[in-house]
Amino acid sequence: MIRKINYTLLLLIAVVALNACDSKEKSASSKDSSFTVVPEVPEKPVMPITKLEFLETSFDFGKIEEGKKVEHVFKFKNTGENPLVLKDARASCGCTIPEYTKDTIAPGSEGELKVIYDSSNKGGQIEKTVTVTANTDPATTDIKISAFVEKKVAGPYNNK
Fold first, then answer.
1. Who contacts 34 (Cβ-Cβ below 8 Å, separation ≥6)?
2. 86 vs 29, which has greater pLDDT?
3. pTM value?
């Protein structure tokens, strides 16, 4: 019986010792997991700032008939000393679509921003904005278009 108790006692001590070692490893690893090693990420190279000048920053289409698509081309020039890159051109609504020069524009060179407006299901006075983002200061430039959209008259004798 003493031998059985000794084996049981010895087994109990071994289990306690193993658990103690395991809990030390767990606590050490949990301490380590609170620190996250973040690898250094190289910064994106910052593009040098330049100057962008539009020949005009607004255009009025005047009166247009509902359902017509109209477009206007805004010309701009890089008047700075560094290359100009237009990063984006966003319209204030889905009825206005900007298309722009995506190539790098050298100092002294020109580019274009075409703005297409779809007057379908519109009526009355409209004003839309296109925000151009580039490597300039400030980083954004707003271009505006406006028009008066004449609603089509629906009637039994109007087959338009």
1. none
2. 86
3. 0.68
